[in-house]
Please model this.
Amino acid sequence: MTQRTCKPYEGLLVVSLEQAVAAPLASCHFAEGGARVIKIERDSGDFAREYDKAVKGEASYFVWANHGKESLCLDIKDADDAALLHRILDRADVFIQNLAPGAIARAGFDAGVLRARNPRLITCDISGYGEEGAYSEMKAYDFLVQCESGLVSVNGAPGHPGRIGVSVCDIGAGMNAVIGIQQALIARAQTDEGSSVKISLFDTAADWMTVPLMHAVYGGKAPEPVGMHHPSIAPYGGFRTADGQMLAISIQNEREWVRLCADVFGEAEMATDPRFCDAAARVANRPTLDAWVTAHFARHGRAELERLLHQATIAYGGVNSVEDFSRHPQLRRTPVTLESGEEVELVAAPVRHSFAPANPRFGAVPRLGEHSEMIRAEFAAEAVPA
Model:
């Protein structure tokens, strides 16, 4: 039986007054799923358009988070433009915004006001620290939230806390927004009423920090930066092979430890050595253990070690550069058309459905204001029924 192709968000109108990363990523998810997404930009454009010029002269973050949308330039402080946006939202299903704290309410687009006009509207407000509390007015760039939440304190090398190398708080908040909106859409199907979704970057990071927080509050000591190691597992990390490559291993239980000693390194007796006989002992004696693993890795080339590790069913992986990753055999890509008309390949969507093509093409990246004239005509006052 042939599976019918469908777009789960087809028929939805999503309006997003957005900038930077979190809100654009959320609305882009709905565009990929078939929704019509109108991106509201000021005349100068979303500042993420100028983050870099890495993608054939266009910004990497913008290309990633904005394909498949329509771009409408509006000045929400202008009375006529504000009225236009209200008319659009009166017909919308979802409204997403991540302006500075308080800005959306001052402009007359508070969630309560909008849902009074359109009771089926789902609103999603994305902020840095939430709308209440001492930090609610703080600027909240991804790096600063990583710092405030303690994320940097558990990353990096010993004595050198480090920022996570991608904008994880922005990305995570965008994904949480998608989850929240999906839940609200299901609730609307049951009640025929819209609702409000509130997301903050700090809450997102705080959720991820639950385990370190519990260690600090209940265990008496928070995890410290350990580089590629793990605070409670050993051996765990990257080790150099004889040909200068690096492989990472992760020994998660005693069965794997026994096989590593006997089948990979040929020293079965090490499995019962008092210094390494259980997980706690191995962590306590990590420097000695790592020196022993390092010495064995240095005796074999990468290919030989991969063969031995695979045969022993030991978890391992290459410590790849981004260039290595770009050639990874498991990396899936999807083409997208840039503002310039040129084509590049993005990483394919991570979620695959049986009802969708195996590798659906992304919509084009919109030029600034590309759809303004069309949308203004469509939602002109005389075009909207009273």
Q: What stands out?
A: The mean pLDDT is 91. The longest helix spans residues 168-191.
